[in-house]
Design goal:
- With 249 residues, the chain is of the alpha+beta class.
- The protein has three domains: 5-75, Arc Repressor Mutant, subunit A; 83-131 and 205-248, YebC, transcriptional regulation domain (Alpha-Beta Plaits); 132-202, YebC, transcriptional regulation domain (Alpha-Beta Plaits, 2-Layer Sandwich).
- Helix content is 48%, strand content 23%.
- It contains nine helices and ten strands.
- The strands form three sheets. The chain has a four-stranded antiparallel β-sheet with strand order 3-1-2-9. A four-stranded antiparallel β-sheet has the order 5-6-4-7. A two-stranded parallel sheet has the order 8-10.
- β5 and β6 (169-175) form a beta hairpin.
- α6 (148-158) crosses α7.
- It is globular, with a radius of gyration of 18 Å.
- It starts with a helix and ends with a helix.
Length: 249
């Protein structure tokens, strides 16, 4: 198991669905509000807002919630959110990138620093781990969309760079600057994706044993529970045997 998305799947299977869902909706609403405030409320003229709304729909966020988040951006009385990125090291030297939308930089910095510290890690300077990742676009379709060969053909035609298919999904990777064009081309060919977003893709992975993996999961859970944190990326890897022992616990 590598990276963050699989951890989220484990967290869902273990319960807390309602609490997790509420957190997801809150973070999606914040992204929609920020996107609409920066680029205007017209989805067709604002690529970032279009992606934010698309991702919200993929999470079954009600239309009223989406519209309310857009309206908030235009009301003039909403919070002023700042986009921040913090970097640091987790257990076994795992490199971690945390993206936030916050109305209080000092609070966010203090919280992120404390999470790293509680799990034996440390927060670094900007750029201290980002060089270990590539900034790319990620487009995810459910496995039911088509076969691996069909998805590969569609991805190549759309200008993507790579496709990773498994029993649950097809993950399509493209250059960061091509994300808008590739996602539009794929939507025309395959329909709307589950998610379309920019990610930090690790260049190399750090293997973790069971103890370090548990600590890593604890660290990610702290980030997930923080309302300011939007995304977490990390370059860890957990083999199937270790993962099975953790999920069975």
């Amino acid at each position: 198991m590598a990276g963050h998305s699989q951890f989220k799947n484990i967290m869902h299977r273990k319960g807390r669905q309602d609490a997790v869902r509420s957190k997801i909706f809150s973070k999606l609403s914040k992204e929609i509000t920020v996107a609409a405030k920066m680029g205007g409320p017209d989805i067709n003229a604002n690529p970032r807002l279009r992606l934010a709304v698309q991702n919200a729909k993929a999470q079954s966020m009600p239309k009223d919630n989406i519209q309310r988040a857009i309206n908030k951006s235009q009301s003039g009385d909403g919070d002023n959110y700042e986009e921040l990125r913090y970097e640091g090291y987790g257990p076994a030297g795992v490199a971690v990138i945390v993206e936030l939308l916050t109305d209080n930089r000092n609070r966010s910095a203090s919280n992120v620093r404390s999470y790293f510290s509680k799990c034996g890690g440390s927060m670094g300077e900007t750029g201290s781990v980002a060089f270990m990742f590539d900034r790319v676009g990620e487009i995810v379709y459910p496995a039911s969309t088509g076969t691996a060969d069909d998805m590969l053909e569609a991805a190549i035609e759309a200008g993507a760079e790579d496709v990773q298919s498994d029993a649950e999904s097809h993950v399509i990777i493209c250059a960061f600057e091509d994300l808008g064009d590739v996602s539009k081309a794929l939507e025309s060919a395959l329909g709307e994706a589950e998610t379309v977003k920019a990610i930090w893709k690790p260049q190399n992975l750090t293997p973790l044993d069971a103890d370090k993996a548990q600590t890593m999961f604890k660290l990610i859970a702290m980030f997930e529970d923080d309302d300011d944190v939007q995304n977490v990326f990390a370059n860890y890897d957990i083999d199937d045997e270790t993962l099975a022992s953790l999920t069975a616990a």
